[in-house]
């Protein structure tokens, strides 16, 4: 679908000043609870996994502990699988799909691979169902040295000791109708640029790394997810969100150049998932299950081809 959208904050053609950012922040409100939805689930996992508090967000008066779930039987001789979710807080199945993977499937990998799962990287944005953090910064363009996003910097610090020991990294995301109706117009307004309407793909797709695309790996994930939910077709230009489709349900991005979460390690196998929760053909349960299936398929392929 396509839409034209005018953003109510700022002057067209002029990037936001601190005043516009403050006006934007004043409009944000808590709509759900990180403590209830996420921390309570993580706490249930404590008997079987190590929980690591790897940082704390301070957006006064609100503070948020950042928690990761770690294999209790961690062994330095095993490869590591990194699973991240909730880089964009509004992308719900990224968070709950990561937790579902741990609850339902992580035990299957004990003794085979070390698991490190950071299920909700942006809890402030999770509560406000937003893409940005409280400073109007997109964490998923901020995984770089001297990151301006607390969320991104904390995760990078957590992962730094494992940088060259991660075999597979799968980062769980969604593409939603609000990308086009709300978040892309807001981005254009914040940066003082025109909003160019786009098309939201109907279905699941992957963003691989253009520097190391690993087509067999991407296809294995697509095939597993196709058993759970439908795969997004290419648009009339042979593209998905403006990028050429290189295989069914797969596009590639230069993940490190763009400061994306998928680029924070040297993992030979890496991908970003994108489900479409607004599709009439998908339910929230299917979206969570699709994310969990993607994680399993990614780890299985990586272990079989290491």
From TrEMBL:
SUPFAM superfamilies: Zn-dependent exopeptidases. Keywords: Hydrolase, Metal-binding, Zinc. Signal peptide: none annotated. The keyword Hydrolase applies. Pfam families: AstE_AspA_cat. InterPro entries: AstE_AspA_cat (IPR055438), Peptidase_M14 (IPR000834). It comes from the Bacteria. Coiled coil: none annotated. Residues 30-306 form the Peptidase M14 domain. Its cofactor is Zn(2+). Belongs to the peptidase M14 family. This is Peptidase M14 domain-containing protein. It comes from Agrilutibacter niabensis.
């Amino acid at each position: 679908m396509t839409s034209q959208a005018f953003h109510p904050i700022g002057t067209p053609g002029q990037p936001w000043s601190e005043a516009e950012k403050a006006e934007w922040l004043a409009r944000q409100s808590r709509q759900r609870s990180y403590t209830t939805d996420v921390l309570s689930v993580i706490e249930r996992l404590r008997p079987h996994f190590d929980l690591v508090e790897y940082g704390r967000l301070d957006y006064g008066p609100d503070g948020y502990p950042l928690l990761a779930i770690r294999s209790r039987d961690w062994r330095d001789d095993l490869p590591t699988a990194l699973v991240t979710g909730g880089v964009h807080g509004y992308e719900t199945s990224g968070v709950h799909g990561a937790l579902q993977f741990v609850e339902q499937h992580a035990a299957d990998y004990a003794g085979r691979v070390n698991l490190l799962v950071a299920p909700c990287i942006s809890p402030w944005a999770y509560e406000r169902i937003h893409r940005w953090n409280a400073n109007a910064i997109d964490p998923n363009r901020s995984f770089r040295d001297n990151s301006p996003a607390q969320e991104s910097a904390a995760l990078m610090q957590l992962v730094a000791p494992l940088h060259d020991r991660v075999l597979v990294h799968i980062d769980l995301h969604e593409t939603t109708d609000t990308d086009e109706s709300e978040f892309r117009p807001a981005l254009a307004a914040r940066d003082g640029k025109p909003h160019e309407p786009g098309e939201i793909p109907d279905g699941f797709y992957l963003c691989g790394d253009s520097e190391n695309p690993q087509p067999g790996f991407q296809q294995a994930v697509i095939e597993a997810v196709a058993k759970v939910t439908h795969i997004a077709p290419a648009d009339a230009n042979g593209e998905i969100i403006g990028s050429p489709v290189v295989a069914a349900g797969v596009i590639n991005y230069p993940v490190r150049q763009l400061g994306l979460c998928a680029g924070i390690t040297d993992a030979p196998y890496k991908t970003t998932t994108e489900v479409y929760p607004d599709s009439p053909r998908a339910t929230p349960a299917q979206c969570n299950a699709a994310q969990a299936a993607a994680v399993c398929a990614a780890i299985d392929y990586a272990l079989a081809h290491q």
